[in-house]
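Structure first, sequence second, as always.
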């Protein structure tokens, strides 16, 4: 049975496998079909990402057995939920090369005459059909991509400003950059009013008429939809994809249509075993004179970008101008990157992306990224104590260890301070077999801890327990006896936002629209699951469900203000691909062979740490009676403390979220109830 397969991986539960099985079952596909391990040599045929002889790549996104659907819904009608595409690999692209070539020749003149790549001009992507899949219906012509909305002006505090759109360096014909300082936005949703510059469409992200090269990664794909957003004659694409074997990789390459062969290349990250997923969603978009770095929470499918009107996500975008010396033909590949750039390049290198492409990123000015941190999870095991400096650096910078390092490096950590208590609010679309240990590790990481605090608590109290096998028990997922007080303290300051059955049922897409929102009842009902932290996740945009993954961290500290002390609220947010699971964030364990700690991650993930503003300076004696413990107000929906994210990171859920229960309408949504 599928359930047994999902639970029998490395001896523990695997929420990502369960989500894959749920998606397959919802499409009537065989859940026992082989999936990608991604083992073997990583190969990519890209040379450069720069303007000097770039050998750009073009991509046919992963073919998935998905019925065709219109890109925009009628806002007056309740949209039909879109079936989820297959996860992971491109299903060998599923393209009929002969038929596509015949149709391409028939349309060639029309394609040349039009600069707009509408659906009528798209070559149909013939997907592989599952035994129970129905034939796709004709897709109506897609509207021309809208022009990007003007961005609203905000304070010059690290957020986007009108004056910041011009690069600081003088360069001939330097383009105006809308996101020079970086910004976090909600995705647009059909049938919802635009948010005055606070939301963004996929067309506004990609800018197809200007896009020269795109490096794209995603967990799910809709290749026909994606190709309608990209101008194939202009844009070259590198697809960071998920394949089951070397044979599938070869098949995927061979099935690229001949006319796309010079424009499309693949990169297959190693997976290090059958479990886990290529879940990161990073986009590198090259234009004339600048590079755009995009970190969305959604996949490359229409419903994640709001086109079916049932789902919303969030996205971080920053534009990096090309350095003046490079535009004028000078050298400079040895230019220093910010820590953000270094960590991003380490992530790309581990995925197996072409070294020349990675090296060419140094030709752009990364200065404005210094206010942020790039956080990743690299699939595999990474030893902290090793003579290999590269491997040790990877271990310190990946998973929740990397999150703690990033928080500390940005000066946002509170480890060891008298006011170290924080409020941690997690928005996620998938929850695994969570326990107190994972919550503690994430909480301490958000305080700036390297990962060792929870590890040392666990290993110190685990020795000598059970049958005397200290090493094995020290890696146990359960909270050691004697540490319950620490675990309870963390849970008092932690909330996890996940939709209730009622919220899903009343959403615009209903139960069928929640196929990518995953929690299993057996995990929720386990004695080790921290049920008390769950809150109902209801969007502030009525009827939408969320696929966003955000960690909001707030803290309150006393600051001297003359003779008085004043209370200041500040914090940060993580925006990225990581859900609440050990597969996503990793686990620090003691290696049984060497006795040294190692970080083990199953998934490829990435995200960005975005500092919040400092607000609410007021004398502590004038507080309105709200109790304060450890420097943090105990009201989880305290409006003043949430104001730190205003203009920095949207807060998409209603506050305070209702506490979820084990029964009734307010019980959590379980994906087995879909349909």
């Amino acid at each position: 049975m599928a359930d047994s397969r999902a639970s029998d991986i490395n001896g523990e539960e695997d929420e990502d496998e369960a989500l894959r099985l749920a998606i397959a079952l919802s499409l009537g596909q065989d859940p026992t079909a082989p999936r990608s391990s991604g083992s073997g040599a990583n190969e990519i045929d890209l040379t450069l990402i720069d303007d000097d002889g770039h050998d750009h790549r073009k991509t046919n996104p992963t073919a998935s057995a998905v019925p065709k659907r219109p890109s925009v819904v009628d806002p007056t009608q309740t949209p039909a939920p879109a079936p989820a595409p297959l996860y992971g690999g491109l299903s060998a692209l599923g393209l009929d090369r002969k038929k596509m070539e015949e149709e391409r020749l028939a349309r060639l003149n029309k394609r040349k005459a039009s600069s707009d790549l509408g659906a009528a001009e798209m070559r149909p992507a013939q997907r592989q059909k599952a035994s129970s899949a129905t034939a796709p219906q004709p897709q109506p012509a897609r509207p021309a991509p809208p022009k990007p909305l003007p961005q609203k002006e905000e304070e010059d505090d690290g957020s986007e400003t009108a004056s910041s759109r011009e690069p600081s360096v003088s360069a001939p014909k330097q383009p105006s950059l809308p996101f020079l300082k970086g910004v976090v936005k909600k995705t647009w949703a059909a049938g919802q009013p635009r948010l005055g510059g606070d939301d963004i469409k996929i067309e506004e992200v990609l800018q197809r008429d200007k896009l020269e090269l795109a490096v794209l990664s995603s967990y799910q794909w809709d290749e026909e939809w994606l190709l309608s957003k990209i101008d194939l004659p202009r844009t070259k694409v590198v697809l960071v994809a998920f394949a089951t074997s070397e044979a599938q990789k070869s098949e995927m390459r061979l099935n690229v249509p001949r006319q796309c062969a010079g424009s499309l290349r693949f990169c297959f990250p190693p997976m290090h075993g059958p479990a886990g997923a290529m879940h990161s969603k990073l986009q590198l978009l090259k234009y004339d004179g600048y590079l755009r770095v995009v970190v969305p929470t959604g996949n490359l499918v229409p419903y994640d970008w709001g086109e079916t009107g049932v789902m919303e996500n969030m996205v971080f975008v920053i534009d990096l101008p090309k350095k003046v010396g490079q535009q004028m033909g000078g050298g400079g590949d040895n230019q220093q990157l910010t820590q953000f750039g270094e960590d991003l390049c380490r992530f790309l290198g581990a995925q197996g992306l072409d070294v020349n492409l990675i090296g060419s990123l140094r030709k752009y000015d990364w200065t404005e990224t210094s206010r942020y941190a790039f956080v990743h999870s690299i699939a595999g095991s990474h030893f902290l104590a090793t003579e290999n400096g590269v491997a040790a650096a990877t271990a310190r910078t990946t998973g929740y260890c990397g999150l703690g390092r990033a928080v500390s490096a940005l000066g946002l950590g509170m480890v060891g301070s008298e006011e170290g208590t924080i409020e941690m609010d997690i928005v996620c679309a998938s929850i695994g077999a969570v326990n107190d240990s994972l919550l503690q590790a994430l909480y301490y990481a958000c305080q700036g801890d390297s990962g060792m605090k929870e590890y040392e608590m666990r290993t110190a109290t685990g020795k000598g327990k059970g049958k005397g096998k200290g090493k094995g028990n020290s890696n146990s997922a359960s909270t050691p006896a004697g540490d319950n007080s620490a675990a309870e303290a963390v849970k008092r300051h932690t909330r996890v936002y996940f939709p209730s059955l009622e919220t899903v049922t009343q959403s615009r897409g209903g139960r069928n629209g929640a196929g990518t929102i995953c929690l299993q009842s057996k995990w929720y009902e386990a004695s080790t699951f921290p049920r008390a932290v769950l809150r109902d996740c209801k969007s502030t945009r009525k009827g939408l469900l969320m696929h966003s993954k955000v960690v909001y961290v707030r803290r309150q500290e006393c600051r001297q203000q003359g003779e008085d002390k004043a209370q200041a609220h500040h914090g940060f947010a993580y925006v990225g691909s990581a859900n609440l699971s050990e597969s996503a964030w990793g686990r620090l364990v003691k290696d049984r062979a060497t006795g040294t700690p190692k970080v083990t991650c199953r998934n490829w993930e990435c995200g960005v740490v975005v500092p919040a503003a400092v607000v609410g300076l007021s004398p502590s004696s004038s507080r309105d009676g709200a109790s304060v413990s450890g420097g943090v107000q105990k009201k989880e929906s305290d409006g003043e403390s949430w104001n730190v994210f205003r203009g920095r990171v949207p807060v998409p859920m209603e506050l305070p979220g209702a506490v979820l229960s084990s029964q009734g309408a307010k019980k959590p949504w379980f994906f087995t109830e879909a349909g």
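Margin note: The chain has a mean pLDDT of 75.
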